[in-house]
Fold this protein.
Amino acid sequence: MCNDEKNTPKKEKEEITGKFTLRLDKDFDKLMEMSEKTGVPLNFRGDRIIDFKINGMSKLTNFKPDQIKIGPPAFYFDLKFGDEKFNQIPFDRIVLSENIVVFKSLFYSKLDINLKIKFKVDKINCCATVNINISPKSNTVKDILNYELRKREFSDKTFQLIPFSDENQKIEGTLPSVIFDDEELNFYKKANKINDKLNLDLILDDDYIITNEDFECADMICSFINTKKIKINNIALSMKTPINMLKEFIHEDKRQMLLKQDSYILKFLGNDINLGPCQVNIKQYEILNKEELEEIYNKNIGNTNLISVKSIIKEFESDELYLDFNID
């Protein structure tokens, strides 16, 4: 249903494979050992990159990257938050100082969030403090929803960190309790539903501020998905008309009116969402700005040119007015 260029249908992710050849140092094994201790990857540049190929991409036959990094082997934790378990999760280890080590979950882990664990060791008192931080895995609405759900699941829950499945090194604690905004969570659920049902690729830029209009549009688009109808209070009708037709329009309200539109576009999260053609069937129309139109009419009596006016109309003595997308 979405025809906007910014919101092209989602594409299935394809696995990309390839190979490369590097010129290694004689002491490569020692360098890798050092990389494992510090968490700093090895860098290969220039003529140290001998060959680089990506399968199925002939356009990149002569392509050579400026740099290739080989990091240390991943550090694995078994995790438990409350009753939920995550086994063999790979982390990148970063040594910030002699006493501070940070572990960041790797992008290919099966976690649906980014997880950062910071250890600060007090060697004098033989203890350590652990700080756990989570963030969205990406800025897609699905990953932001997963993040909001995880925050609630982890709040005030016990946790366990088990390095390399070694129960003897198990670390346990309790996460703090956090107050959440349920309205925000419901919004992301609706945004994710819209993204899936309309087959979009909606993202939320880091600097984007969600507005009241986004909340209203989410409700409208979800109504469209569920019923192919959107309830509205009134409809603004812009028209150019001769003065005699304006008189007839003003004084013969309460009549039936059928309005059709080729496309209906809503602005949602900074994107134009085109819901397609629709119509509004009004059994008896009522003009809400009738006095304004009568004033325009009185000022233009005898005017032979077309008059540009904007009328606001609704269903007479009823709030049952809908944009109907059930059009054959």
